[in-house]
Amino acid sequence: MFSGSIVALITPMTADGDIDFSSLRQLVDYHVAGGTAAIAAMGTTGESPTLTTTEHLEVVRAVVEHADGRIPVIGGCGSNNTRQAIRLSRAMEEMGVTAGLSVTPYYNKPSQAALKAHYTAITEASGLPQILYNVPGRTGCDLLPETVAVLSELVPVIGIKEASGRLERVSQLKACCGDDFLLFSGDDHLALDFVRLGGHGVVSVTANVAAAEMATLFRTALAEDWPAAESIQRRLLPLHQRLFCDTNPIPVKWACAELGLIESPMPRLPLIPLDASGQEQVREALVKAELIGRG
Hints:
Layout: E1 4-8, H1 21-34, E2 38-41, H2 53-67, E3 73-76, H3 82-95, E4 99-103, H4 112-125, E5 130-134, H5 136-139, H6 145-151, E6 157-162, H7 168-177, E7 182-185, H8 191-196, E8 201-204, H9 211-222, H10 226-242, H11 250-258, H12 276-288
Parallel strand pairs: 1-2, 1-8, 2-3, 3-4, 4-5, 5-6, 6-7, 7-8
C-alpha cells in the first residue's frame, strides 16, 4: 500500500492554543513537494490526547481534503477507550483516509488477551485498514509479536508501527506475520537498520522538518543503496536524537517554526514550549543536517 518515509505529522497551533489550519495546509503541501510517502495525521506526535473528538476529526478531514489525492493520509484512530476507537475508525472510513493508525490502549495496561479483544472489536465494527501502533514507552503495554501474528489474520489489519526500540522485533514479526505484513519503524534513529532487516519504512518525527531528506533516505534504503542511505543517515542522526531532547512533539514543533514551516511553536498544555537549552540543541542539529546555516 505504501512504503518509505511517512511523516508523523504535528498539529500546528496558534499562540492561544487553537488549531492553525492555515499552517496545517502548508505542511501538507510541504510533504507533497518533498516526496513524503504518506501523512499520518492525529497520531501521538499530533497531540491527539489533548484534542477533543471534534477537533481530532476536523484535523484529519482538513488534511484529507487539502491532500486531495496527492498523498495517502493515515488517520490516528487509536484510543484507550475501545468504543472511542471504533467511533474514530468509522468516521475516518467515511472521510476517505487510506488507513488508520491505532495505538495500543495507554494507561489501562491491557493483557495480550485484552489487546486481541480490543483490536478484534475495532475490526468487526469498521472495515478501515488498520496499522497497529506499539509504543510501550508511552503506553505502558507491549504488543508482543505472537499477539500481532493473531491480529494480522484479521482482514483490516495490514501492518504495524513498531516503536519498542528492539530491532529483533523485525525478524520476529516477519517470521510470524509474513512478508506482506507492513512493518514500519517508529524510531527515526533505528529506522535505517529496521529497513535493512526487512522493514518497509518509518513513521517519522524527523520528516516534519526534513521531508525531502527522509524521503530520499528511505528510497535509497529500499533500493538497497546502503552507502547513499548511510551518508544521509549520518547527517540526520543528531536531528533524530535532539528532536527528543524534550517530550515529543515539543522540540519538533519548535524546529518547524524555526524553519518557517509553521507560525507558532506552541504545543497544547500540559506540554509547554521548548526552553533555551533545548533550542540550542535542536538548532545545532538543524545546522548539522544542513537545514539551516550557522550564525
